[in-house]
Amino acid sequence: MGPILEARAVVKELVGPQEPVRAVDGVDLVIQRGEFVAITGPSGSGKSTLLYLLGALDRPTKGEVLVDGISTNGLAETKLAGLRNAKIGFVFQFHFLLPELTAVDNVAMPMMVGGMGSAAARKRAGELLEKVELGHRAQHRPHELSGGQQQRVAIARALANDPLVLLGDELTGNLDTKNGDLVYGWLRAQNRERGQTIVIVTHNLELAAHADRVIELVDGKVAGLA
Ligand code: ADP
Ligand code: MG
Question: Which CATH superfamily groups domain 5-225?
Fold first, then answer.
């Protein structure tokens, strides 16, 4: 099987107003298939930046990220996009739903990009929306949904292509406890039933405690052992 995600001596420098910021400063970690991992740490510790790197949305300044054994360094942008669409589901802190599309079409989009016909994609999208208890809102546009509902659409969209890995950034950050528990429950079910690897960034320590493993970041570095 082997690791699904691997970071080797990863550094990410971002251009700040004065000097460059080392948002990620020499991270080594290995995430095995089927793990449920929480990444925690104070605000500004590099959690989002690291998650973007692990999700192949960005490339490291130094070091190497491997997704399912493939180094992202050597891949051209189109190959990288294909790898992401096929293997990774991403739920961002801000949902980035397409405002002009209905919920069902937002969820269907990654499947159509992956080559599925629109009828089949919409059918599966409807089923995924049912799963996150939004079947009754399938025809709504994002602005006609609450923040929590938009996030559930984003989760359904992330699951569209049955990804090997689901990455979530502060998924439960703006949800109340009940909704936070629901989201956690869906992720855990995906993890158990489909063997999906889940990596979530969270400052909610209660939620993190439910993960199989917690990785803590401090100043762009892993505190303790990853
Ligand atoms: P976290 O998600 O843990 O709050 P981030 O990964 O967002 O942390 O940010 C890590 C560090 O990088 C912070 O010091 C932040 O100010 C800086 N940073 C984040 N994004 C950018 C950017 N686009 N340009 C410059 N600096 C950034
Ligand atoms: Mg963040």
Answer: P-loop containing nucleotide triphosphate hydrolases (3.40.50.300)
